[in-house]
């Protein structure tokens, strides 16, 4: 590609560089270095470059702008890159390494982003929040700032629009990782947690996020978890916290209970030790009492539909019936034992050919025959080693064992076998099902495997499913469903009508009742761990009765322990703190023992958004006036992986707090946005045969054993939709990008990126990579592009380095009135950037700013008012460079609270006219100009037009005749008249 042409023009005088009221020294000049110009050692102002594109007029066709944008800045940068390729990168763009620490100090010293405790409540509010981060020892990787940058853009934007903004940050600091690390290293978890918090805080500040650090909170602070304990006491008072014996994941080798996420394929995540399910007495929270409200209130939330659907499925509300099946003795007579099943399809009761009970069913021991007892016990042991997930969704082949016992189908009086199978969970419904193999896929597979009869009782309208070889789970017309002895006949009815008739019959005969059921289980709220919030309950020594602490005795502080390893007996590590555990009940004065289980990590993160509203309040969880103003959170940004745990638990606690008058809204988060995942850089993989020859990836499956080799990017080229070797385009490669992880070695540290390109470049790139909600692939070459854009912006406004290599003071802007073209370019940019920030389409907002800079490089002069407005547009995205440019434009205060520019509709109309151009009265061509175009702009456009420029180059101009929107006539001087046409 040919280098673009350029023209030298007289450099504009620099503006005066003000230093009013700033608490730091002026910047020192950079070390002297050679001039960047290749022409007689002159320094060429970047704003003076003039470019001509083949057959395209400046600024008239959107395709020009788009092509400039798609090429990023390569036409503009070609010459300069050649001039600067031997210079360090930081000197090739702009001095971010000086600018960014300078403004970060200013913001911190001046508490620029502090939200006052008392705000003007007549102003609108905007509460924007990131999901509570857990401060791990590995620190941030470049995927983490994606959401943080988005919330920061929104916060800065809303401040400039005049909102009171609450944009806080804190730490979800209790939890399993810190404790596991402590056990492995012998370091107290508090030490490692505080160290990790300091690292996270440093990294976040280095990225220029406008958090109100005066509101910083941490779940490990007693002043904070005092109120977590207080909420637990409110739950306890209302019967929403209770103790029950429930199956847990017990690891004998580790001597501790494990959370579900710590168990993988039936073994402990750490160590690979066998894990079994065993019942233990645990604290539970009765979230099921709020199931209907949690479900119904989803409809009014501005959340991703996928997240709402995940919560609906997790809650799993279904309407059906509970039916009683009497157990039979060896002679076929009814015993005093009955098995209650829950079914959503009572219309299919005549098709129930066997029952299934869960291995942990409470009646199982009384059902099993002597002959089958050993087989059932062995099966129960195997089932106890599987997680609920393995037993349901992930288990492909159904397994089970016959109990040796039968029950009577109440609809037809037939004797049906009772099986034990782990695809039925004791925690769902009644822990037993009536199996209808003809109309349930799992039951069909099980019946086919164990040769159990299959009876078809639902016929699809217009079809015959009995010979299909598979279950039909839909609705239809009922058949084979009549028994006069039992008094039930539903033949010929539709499924829905038949279901109602069966329930009616069951309630009348005492064989069952209508029932609403939920998949949602009560929340297991205890962990046999040290590093968590102590549960504020004591148990009397003589009776074992649980007694809550007095609210005035909170916080119950976590004792310091030197030995926080598992006990090996199932007792939590806190049981080792003998002097802490042994206590006196304050009400009765009787000896008591403290609860030694701790709360799960989710506890502190269930309500933290409320504490940010009033973080220093020692008398109540949150001041009512402040809560009423700030609630609910307007925008909550985080990963979709928290859809059915954190988000559901937070909604539950919030509704309880609403019921007791602590909060004024029924929902905590008005709008939830899930950011996409940033994947590691693409790896290109080639296959080689045993002889070392490359094999194309599209034929690799048909060959034998192959070796894989990672190919460097510079040896790869794209061919159509595929990637191939540059040296052999017939060899197709596999291109893969994976989630960043230490094990894959593809983690990119943001500290390294900031050191090389600056925080503003990292922020801008993460927003420019693609739609905010989509997953994206990291590319180092991509960040170089946005870094060059910021460099171009800097040089456009500040100008190039001085001949001695130092930075110039001020800017190269002028106080001239802007032209219509300049105003139009600005206001189109304002409108686009505003619209895209409000729609969280940050990438297209950046594209609009790139288009503006491309246009501004073609102007002869840079009006100060235009560039000031652009700097304000840029500031939410790249705040450090924007602050510095604002300062150099003559302002002494931060731009953080400057009004965000508003677009003037008068400049947004797409009004173009075709303007005839005459040379000495003869029409030589036309140009397309905007309505209202000035004479100066029209002449400049004509001079740049390829056809018209040949009549004007090197000619003297006697005068110009311009009728706006009608004609431009250029009269050449007489000495050049004969040379007017070549």
UniProtKB/TrEMBL annotation:
SUPFAM superfamilies: Anticodon-binding domain of a subclass of class I aminoacyl-tRNA synthetases (SSF47323), Nucleotidylyl transferase (SSF52374), ValRS/IleRS/LeuRS editing domain (SSF50677)
Catalytic activity reported: tRNA(Leu) + L-leucine + ATP = L-leucyl-tRNA(Leu) + AMP + diphosphate
NCBIfam families: leuS_bact
Residues of the Leucyl-tRNA synthetase editing domain: 312-498
Domain Methionyl/Valyl/Leucyl/Isoleucyl-tRNA synthetase anticodon-binding, first and last residues per copy: 823-930
Enzyme class: ligase
GO annotation (BP), single: leucyl-tRNA aminoacylation
UniProt keyword annotations, A-Z: Aminoacyl-tRNA synthetase, ATP-binding, Ligase, Nucleotide-binding, Protein biosynthesis
Gene3D superfamilies, A to Z: HUPs, Isoleucyl-tRNA Synthetase, Domain 1, Valyl/Leucyl/Isoleucyl-tRNA synthetase, editing domain
One annotated GO molecular function: ATP binding
Methionyl/Leucyl tRNA synthetase domain segment(s): 131-263
Similarity comment: Belongs to the class-I aminoacyl-tRNA synthetase family.
EC number: 6.1.1.4
GO cellular component: cytosol; mitochondrion
Name of the protein in its database record: leucine--tRNA ligase
Source organism: Manihot esculenta (Cassava)
Alphabetized InterPro entries for the sequence: aa-tRNA-synth_Ia (IPR002300), Leu-tRNA-ligase (IPR002302), Leu_tRNA-synth_edit (IPR025709), M/V/L/I-tRNA-synth_anticd-bd (IPR013155), Methionyl/Leucyl_tRNA_Synth (IPR015413), Rossmann-like_a/b/a_fold (IPR014729), tRNAsynth_Ia_anticodon-bd (IPR009080), Val/Leu/Ile-tRNA-synth_edit (IPR009008)
């Amino acid at each position: 590609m040919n280098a673009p042409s350029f023209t030298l023009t007289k450099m504009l005088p620099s503006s005066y560089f003000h230093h009013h009221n700033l608490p730091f020294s002026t910047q020192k000049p950079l070390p002297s270095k050679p001039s960047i110009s290749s022409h007689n050692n002159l320094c060429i102002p970047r704003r003076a470059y003039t470019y001509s594109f083949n057959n395209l007029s400046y600024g008239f066709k959107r395709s020009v702008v788009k092509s400039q944008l798609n090429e990023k800045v390569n036409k503009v940068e070609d010459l300069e890159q050649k001039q600067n390729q031997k210079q360090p990168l930081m000197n090739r763009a702009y001095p971010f390494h000086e600018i960014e620490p300078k403004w970060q100090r200013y913001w911190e010293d001046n508490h620029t982003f502090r939200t006052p405790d008392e705000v003007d409540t007549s102003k609108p509010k905007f509460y924007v929040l990131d999901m509570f981060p857990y401060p791990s020892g590995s620190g941030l990787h470049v995927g983490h700032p994606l959401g943080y940058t988005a919330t920061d853009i929104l916060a800065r934007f809303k401040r400039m629009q005049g909102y009171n903004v609450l944009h806080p940050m804190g730490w979800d600091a209790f939890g399993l990782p810190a404790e596991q690390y402590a056990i492995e290293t012998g370091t107290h978890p508090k030490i490692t947690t505080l160290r990790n918090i300091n690292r996270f805080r440093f990294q976040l500040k280095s990225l220029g996020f406008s958090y109100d650090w005066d509101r910083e909170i941490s779940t490990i602070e007693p002043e904070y978890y005092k109120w977590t304990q207080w909420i637990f006491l409110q739950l306890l008072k209302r019967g929403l916290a209770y103790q029950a014996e429930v199956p847990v994941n017990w690891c004998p080798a580790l001597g501790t209970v494990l959370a579900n996420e710590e168990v993988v394929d039936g073994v402990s995540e750490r160590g690979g030790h066998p894990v079994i399910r065993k019942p233990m007495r645990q604290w539970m929270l009765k979230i099921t009492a709020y199931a209907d409200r949690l479900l119904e209130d989803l409809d009014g939330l501005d959340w991703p539909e996928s997240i709402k659907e995940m919560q609906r499925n997790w809650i799993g509300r279904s309407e059906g019936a509970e039916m009683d099946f009497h157990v039979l003795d060896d002679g076929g007579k009814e015993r005093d034992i009955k098995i209650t099943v829950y079914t959503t399809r009572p219309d299919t009761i005549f098709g129930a050919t066997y029952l299934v009970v869960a291995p942990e069913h409470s009646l199982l021991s009384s059902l099993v025959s002597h002959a089958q007892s050993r087989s059932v016990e062995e099966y129960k042991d195997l089932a106890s080693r599987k997680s609920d997930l393995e037993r349901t969704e992930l288990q492909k082949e159904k397994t089970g064992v016959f109990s040796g016992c039968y029950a009577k189908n109440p609809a037809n009086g037939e004797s049906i076998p009772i099986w034990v199978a782990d695809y039925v969970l004791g925690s769902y419904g009644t822990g037993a099902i009536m199996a209808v193999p003809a109309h349930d896929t799992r039951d069909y597979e099980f019946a086919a495997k164990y040769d159990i009869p299959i009876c078809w009782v639902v016929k699809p309208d217009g079809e015959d499913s009995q010979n299909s070889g598979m279950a039909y789970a839909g609705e239809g017309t009922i058949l084979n469903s009549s028994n006069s002895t039992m008094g039930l006949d539903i033949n010929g009815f539709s499924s829905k009508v038949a279901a109602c008739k069966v329930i009616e019959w069951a309630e009348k005969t005492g064989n069952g009742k209508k029932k609403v059921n939920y998949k949602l289980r009560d929340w297991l709220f205890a962990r046999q761990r040290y590093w968590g919030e102590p549960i504020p309950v004591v148990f009397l020594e003589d009776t074992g009765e649980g007694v809550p602490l007095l609210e005035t005795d909170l916080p119950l502080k976590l004792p310091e322990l030197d030995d926080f390893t598992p006990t090996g007996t199932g007792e939590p590590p806190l049981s080792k703190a003998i002097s802490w555990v042994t206590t006196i009940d304050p009400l009765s004065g009787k000896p008591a023992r403290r609860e030694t289980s701790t709360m799960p990590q989710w506890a502190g993160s269930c309500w933290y958004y409320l504490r940010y509203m009033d973080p220093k309040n020692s008398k109540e969880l949150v001041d009512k006036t402040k809560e009423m103003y700030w609630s609910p959170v307007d925008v909550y940004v985080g990963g979709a992986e928290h859809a059915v745990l954190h988000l559901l638990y937070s909604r539950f606690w919030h509704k309880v707090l609403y019921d007791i008058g602590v909060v004024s809204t029924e929902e905590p988060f008005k709008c939830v946005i899930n950011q996409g995942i940033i994947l590691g850089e693409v790896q290109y993989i080639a296959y080689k045969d045993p002889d070392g020859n490359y094999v194309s990836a599209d034929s690799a499956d048909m060959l034998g054993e192959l070796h894989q080799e990672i190919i460097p990017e510079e040896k790869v080229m794209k061919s159509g939709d595929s990637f191939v070797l540059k040296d052999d385009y017939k060899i197709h490669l596999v291109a893969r990008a994976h989630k960043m992880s230490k094990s894959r070695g593809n983690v990119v540290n943001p500290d390294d990126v900031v050191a090389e390109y600056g925080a503003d470049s990292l922020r801008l790139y993460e927003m420019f990579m693609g739609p905010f909600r989509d997953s994206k692939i990291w590319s180092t070459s991509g960040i170089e592009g946005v870094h060059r854009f910021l460099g171009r912006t800097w040089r456009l406004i500040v100008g190039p380095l001085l001949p001695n290599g130092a930075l110039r003071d001020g800017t190269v802007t002028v106080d001239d009135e802007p032209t219509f073209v300049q105003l139009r370019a600005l206001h189109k940019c304002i409108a686009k950037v505003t619209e895209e920030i409000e729609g969280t389409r940050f990438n297209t907002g950046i594209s609009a700013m790139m288009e503006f800079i491309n246009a501004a490089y073609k102007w002869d002069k840079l009006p100060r008012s235009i560039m000031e407005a652009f700097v304000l547009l840029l500031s939410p995205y790249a705040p450090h460079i924007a602050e510095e440019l604002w300062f150099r434009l003559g302002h002494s205060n931060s731009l953080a609270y400057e009004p965000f520019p508003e677009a003037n509709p008068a400049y947004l109309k797409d009004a173009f006219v075709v303007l005839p151009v005459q040379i000495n009265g003869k029409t030589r061509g036309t140009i397309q100009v905007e309505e209202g175009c000035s004479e100066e702009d029209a002449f400049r456009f004509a001079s740049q037009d390829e056809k018209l420029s040949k009549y004007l180059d090197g000619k003297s101009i006697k005068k110009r005749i311009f009728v706006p929107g009608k004609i431009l006539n250029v009269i050449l001087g007489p000495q050049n008249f004969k040379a007017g046409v070549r």
